Amino acid sequence: MTDTPHDTQSGVEKHAFSAEVGRLLDLVVHALYSEREIFLRELVANAADALDKRRFEALTTPSEALPDGASIRIAPDKEKRLLTISDVGAGMSHDELAQNLGTIARSGTRAFGEKLSAAKPEDRPSLIGQFGVGFYAAFMVADHVDVISRKAGAPDAFQWSSDGKGSFEISPASREAGGTDIVLHMKEDAAEFLDAWRLKSIIRKWADHITWPIKLQDGEETSDANEGTALWRKSKSDITEEQYTEFYRHVAHQFDAPYTTMHWSAEGATEFTALLFIPGARPFDFMESSRESKVNLHVKRMFITDEAGLLPAWLRFVKGVVDTEDLPLNVSREMLQATPVLTRIRKAVTKRVLNEIRQRATKPEDKEGFKNFWENFGPVLKEGIWEDAEYRQEIASLSLFRSTYSDDATTLDDYVARMKDGQAHIYFLTGDNVESLAHSAQLEGFRARGIEVLLLSDQVDGFWPERLGSYKEKTLRAISQTHGDLDKFAAPTPEGEAASLEKLLPALKAALEGRVKDVKSTNRLVDSAVVITSEGGPDMMMQRLMRQSGQAMPAILPILEINPHHALIRNLAARADRDESVEDFAAVLLDMARVNEGEPLGDASAFIRKLTTMLVSASA
């Protein structure tokens, strides 16, 4: 409450701010808002509330009806360094000025809202203000503020004046009709907010879609400063495809047409309206941009933030707007409270978007469209398999993968349907690109036995298979890991007699001591002489990704597997049987296997020297 008023001159009352205001004004001005331009959003929100109040009250008091063409008017005056925000709303009486502007968190909006419980839902105005502190944001840019207000239906007007330093004055004033004028005496360093173009840009950012028209005066000219129509609040039947596309391009800052449009209203415990789009093309800098979702959050048509995390990072390609009446905000409106309401909105929006993607994925007539969507955003969507346990299986079910089965992408369901009798695993191979993977020596034994292998070449593919673990009770297994699975399946008879490796294996192990974990014979190769595999721990692609990201990666020695039917191995086995050295050959074999896997050579110069020497000897 304020102190007892006293006259400083005839008709002028001077009041001290309540203790709460005195302590918090400095916080509001210097710490509550991160951007000074927020002051205009707050004052426009208050004006919109005042207009809504008057429209509501006119339902029972027709004499207080809004005048025709009611709007919010903003008039900058550079010469006098004044900025005026005017409305023809409900206005305030003498006592309301003292109570609403003299006591923190005693918002007229909030008090008025308590009167609405008996009103019919369709008659209730949509009020923006909640905490009664937004008005004080004016002092971020003004060193003095005058509020001239006349309550609708009342004969007298009053002026509230303050420099925000501990007290305010209320005095009789003159105003032709009901409503409020807020006059800001701008600080010298706030001159930018007297430029019409700057004011218009702020309005377009924060208040473009509120119901009431905002008129901006620029010299002798007055123009519309906001669009005034929230497209998402319209019925879908009243919106054309062209209007959807135009709005998509506005909110997404792109020039293509959306792949899909989602427009719906949620009712029940949490109510909100959403208009979301999946782009038809991938932005050129998409993979380098922030991983945060940038869906715009509006409260009662007023833009609040695009950093509310309304969608998880793995759906960050979705653009659009979510508008709610229910969301509690903290006093600054910039840092959202972690409320159950926001949690429910996030969950509902995520499910709706994922359901839309699933529906598009299962439409035969949209096969090419979904393929294009997957090429654009599939690598991002797969991040959800890695990081989101709730949606992991669902994302996996609609994901597309290249495989050795055909050139067309496949789903995991189709892969499982094609599995061989007795096959317990979904096999995959990871690498830097599909073309290289398709020629990998790792595939030879699987191709020979007709076993399909997924070819995974996106960076995230190095991570998610471990998290997914299994699909339809079939475990995922990297074929670059050592295992004996191929022994279960019949294979064509290999060409060439198998070499005896009794002396060669120990000789190769000795030559490669400290560089490999083991050297063993394998049945996974057909045309190649050697391949490297790993045993437990991250596979080779995961190791590369961890090293590239700067993470500490302990040395994990590979296993060198050799093909006993290959002519080169037979020749080396004969050499070992004659007790001749195979040391140089061992190093070249390992380097050959590393190159085939896309691994960097430890010493490329040494590899070239040894290979050159061998070629010279062989060509002599």
Automatic annotation (TrEMBL):
Region of interest called A, as start-end residue ranges on this chain: 1-333
Keyword ATP-binding: yes
Subcellular location(s) per record: Cytoplasm
Chain segments annotated as coiled-coil in the UniProt record: none
Domain of life of the source: Bacteria
PANTHER family: HEAT SHOCK PROTEIN 90 FAMILY MEMBER
Quaternary organization: Homodimer.
Similarity-based family: Belongs to the heat shock protein 90 family.
Protein name in the entry: Chaperone protein HtpG
Organism of derivation: Candidatus Kirkpatrickella diaphorinae
